[in-house]
Amino acid sequence: MAITDWPADDRPREKLLSKGADSLSDAELVAIFLRTGVRGKSAVDLARDVLKQCGSLSALFSAGDREFCAVPGLGMAKYVQLQAVSEMARRALREKISNGDALGSPGSVRDYLRLTLQGRPYEVFIGVFLDAQNRVIAVEQLFRGTLTQTSVYPREVVKRALHYNAAAMIFAHNHPSGIAEPSRADEMLTVALAQALALVEVKVLDHFVVGSDAAMSFAERGLL
Description:
By secondary structure, this protein is an alpha+beta fold. The chain is 44% helix and 15% strand.
């Protein structure tokens, strides 16, 4: 049955307008993005197919073009649109954390880092450079690693902090395994970075480990 034949209250667009976007399921939200289905399947059915193919909504946003286009009825045009939506969300969150005290909106910082790092097949280490009022000066990918690890050099991090004249920093890296738990090596690295940056009077405010469904904060765990 086509969505146009559904009761008005059950149609995703009408439901969003009457009850708000947060009332929709993941499949209904994706269906609005897809707009149309294919022969024999509604947009909601097609949305369920792509979510099943990718595994989750967050995994959908980080899916490669081959994985996305493997779902019958989806092609490169929709994949490009999805990447544009994802990038707009990242930029909107970055604007939000750049226009005020980053520590005053920790949820926005966490959301930005999750959207930036989740689902990557290799480790990436990011530095967020802050001024004396904890406003974001820059966000930079400092190092890129492999499936299981990345090499981070405190001396290079110090050089970038001095380049931006930063007063503080927040770090983040992802775990391609999906588990948002710090390893012993992560803890030792964070201590080494904090000690190196303290020599040039730059504070380390937090370090996030991003997994498939969460971002763990060192500060919240009392590890800083």
